[in-house]
Write a structure and sequence with these properties.
single chain; Rossmann fold; 2 domains; six-stranded parallel beta sheet; 16 helices; 14 strands; 42% helix
């Protein structure tokens, strides 16, 4: 099977579509990728890339077509709009210069959903069936995560999104709860298939390394990994840490990651005199994360309270489960359901710092055997629901159906 993958993001940008393309290629399918010039998340072109260079390249045996776009800059609203629209414009033109035939068009659609237009055009040019893999719900995400409240703007985005959905016979969704939202938007339920993220094979159970363990402070270590942004509701974590400190003084919060909210978070921690309870380690390549997870007692996932986050499976959850560690969640909806169903840890409602602190204190009193059992449950659930090879083969079956 010859597959054209359309994605605004691709290596060296760190998105899971990278591994999916490598996996399909390893299974004997010929994969080519149409993507943009890399500029996420820093906002400028990566070293070695510019408007005039790297129009095509080979990455891990995959031919990659690079479309020009306007870099996202400081990720302000207008600059992001230009980034999204410029990719649609230039990538659509790029399609006419690709002299290949494809059997399937696979469109990776986190934000922005506008990438769906490119898949529609590609399906016409190459006379190939298009598949849209939806990871973000527009216009809901613009309202909840982007802070856009203008009803006219949201209405126009809603119409655009419905138009995109109309042209696809198969729409894959990363969460089973996405179905209800798409059906509300007029999408036939027969079009919708649940196809989740998987965790790459380097997320696995490993023995703690002394070099990494030495970085961690003494006491119980709760590790958060990922973006430090408004969506992660760090105020809830900080408030919970303040409550926990008054009851137990040997619980630490290890933070791995970067994000736009990081400086504000650090300043708030300082104002509340919680510096001894938090340790920021910076960011590391995904391939190294299992070594850090192995040295933690539990892994923390948190999200702000919103409709879209109730419906979403955050990508880090699969990574946490794969690493075989207990999970503590300050989350609603499907993410909470998975933690509880898998018996891998505790879940409390989003933005409820008191209940999060209760979960952490409760976890601290568990025996070593009980914590180990939670980790084993996490790994078992991952292997059943989110294992890489199973989901790659499932995608191939979807293409063939």
């Amino acid at each position: 099977m010859k597959i054209l993958v359309v994605s605004q993001y691709f290596y060296p940008e760190n998105f899971r579509i990278n591994d999916l393309c490598y996996g399909l290629n390893d299974l004997g399918h010929e994969v080519e990728v149409l993507t943009g010039k890399p500029n996420y998340p820093k906002g400028s072109f990566y070293k070695g890339y510019s408007w005039y260079t790297k129009q095509t390249e080979i990455i891990n045996g995959i031919k990659v077509y690079r479309s020009n776009l306007i870099p996202r800059g400081n990720s302000g609203g207008f600059r992001l709009f230009l980034n999204y629209i410029s990719f649609v414009f230039f990538a659509s033109i790029k399609l006419f210069f690709i002299k290949q035939k494809f059997d399937k068009i696979f469109v990776y659609a986190p934000s922005p959903i506008t990438v769906g237009f490119i898949g529609i055009i590609a399906s016409v040019i190459f006379r190939a069936k298009p598949f849209l893999w939806v990871h973000d719900l527009w216009p809901e995400s613009l309202k909840d995560a982007g802070g856009i409240t203008n009803k006219i703007a949201l209405g126009l985005v809603n119409l655009m999104t419905k138009l995109i959905y109309h042209f696809y016979d198969i729409i894959l969704v990363q969460s089973p709860r996405f179905r209800e939202y798409l059906i509300e938007q007029g999408v036939s339920k027969n079009k919708i298939l649940y196809y989740p993220y998987y965790a790459e094979s380097f997320y696995k159970v490993v023995k703690p390394k002394l070099k990494v363990k030495s970085i961690f402070p003494n006491g119980l270590n709760i590790l958060f990994a990922g973006n430090i942004g408004v969506a992660q509701s760090f105020d809830t974590i900080i408030s919970a840490a303040n409550i926990v400190r008054k009851k137990k003084n040997n619980i630490n919060f290890i933070i791995i990651g970067e994000g736009r909210d990081k400086q504000r978070v650090i300043e708030k921690i300082s104002r509340m005199s919680l510096e001894k309870n938090f340790k920021f380690l910076g960011s590391f390549p995904p391939e190294k994360m299992s070594d850090y997870f192995a040295c933690a007692d539990a892994l923390l996932v948190s999200l702000k309270k919103s409709k879209i986050f109730r419906l979403t499976i955050p990508g880090k959850l699969q990574s946490y489960l794969a690493s075989g560690k207990p999970i503590i969640g300050s989350v609603d909806g499907v993410c909470s359901d998975i933690i509880l169903k898998s018996k891998s840890g505790y879940a409390s409602p989003s933005e409820n710092s008191k209940m999060l602190s209760t979960s952490i204190i409760k976890f601290s009193y568990l025996t070593k055997k009980e914590k180990l059992k939670m980790g084993e449950n996490a790994r078992k659930y991952f292997e059943k629901e989110f294992e890489r090879n199973k989901l790659l083969l499932k995608l191939i079956d979807i293409f063939k159906a």
